[in-house]
Give the backbone structure.
Amino acid sequence: MLYNTLQLWLSDLATDFLPYKVEAMKVQYSIVCVLDLLAALVSGANLNVSGDAVTTRFWDCCKPSCGWKLKAPFSRPVQSCGIEDKPIDIDAGTGCNGGTAYQCSDQQPWKVNDTFSYGFAGAFIKPELTGGKIEDAWCCACYQLDFTSEPLKGKTMIVQASNTAYDVTSTNRFSLAIPGGNTTSHDACAKQYGVDQRVFGTESEGIGREDDCDNLPENLRSACKWRFEWYKDASFPSVNFKRVPCPSELTDKTQCVRNDEAELKGLAPSPAPLHEPSFWVAALGLAMTSLFLV
Ligand SMILES: *[C@@H]1O[C@H](CO)[C@@H](O)[C@H](O)[C@H]1NC(C)=O
Ligand SMILES: *[C@@H]1O[C@H](CO)[C@@H](O)[C@H](O)[C@H]1NC(C)=O
Ligand SMILES: *[C@@H]1O[C@H](CO)[C@@H](O)[C@H](O)[C@H]1NC(C)=O
């Protein structure tokens, strides 16, 4: 905003005081260059985001927050599913509020080897790390989580942020999507799977023992057991996180790929300066300056 006002003001100044036009143009050009640089830096700020975070667990069966249009610049929102666990229309409302869309069962964690697992998470990253952006910055981005607390020290996950964990905003957080890992007051799981909500365990805790995983719908059992085996039923383990390019293992399930993935991989230059109107103002300014100088 300030940026555009400044440009307008400088253009006015240039037309009102013709003799000073060249000087004004030169000043404008320099200011524009500096502002463009800043814009490029700020736009890149959510690419290489990293820090430390706490983790929690959730499995509320709700349509994931990144499953709605316009949450971020991406190919399409995170896939949601109907009660038959079949992909459902993007615009379908959430089963946690009278709608028919739920979290697809395959957006669950799985072990690759003893030190590495894939999964999905509800993210919250503090705005000072994302240039002030919220879901725009993390929806469908992937993060490497290196666990820093026992019993998981030395283990790593790569998760895709398919959801948002808004209820705590004082710290970076990844709430790992683990079936039976933490119910909420919603009855969405009962509706989605046609079971008693209690098979998903108690509020804030989820189920208490690995054996209880066998009461869950069949396609959720292995990920429920993953919590007691690979994840060692850890309680709020801490992590160092950093954004990484999304592996197709994860995006194949959500169908959601962010537009800035290529830039993150270094395959595309930052598009910011070219798309900024200031680029053209600067170009025009430069052209006119040279006209006046000849
Ligand atoms: C992000 O970090 C990687 C390596 O840490 C670097 O190669 C890349 O240029 C960085 N990208 C941006 C946009 O800063
Ligand atoms: C369960 O979810 C609630 C709400 O996000 C959270 O406050 C709580 O810490 C979670 N419990 C676990 C064990 O992750
Ligand atoms: C576990 O899998 C990851 C990802 O494929 C790989 O980078 C790592 O080397 C593997 N670790 C072991 C101990 O096999």
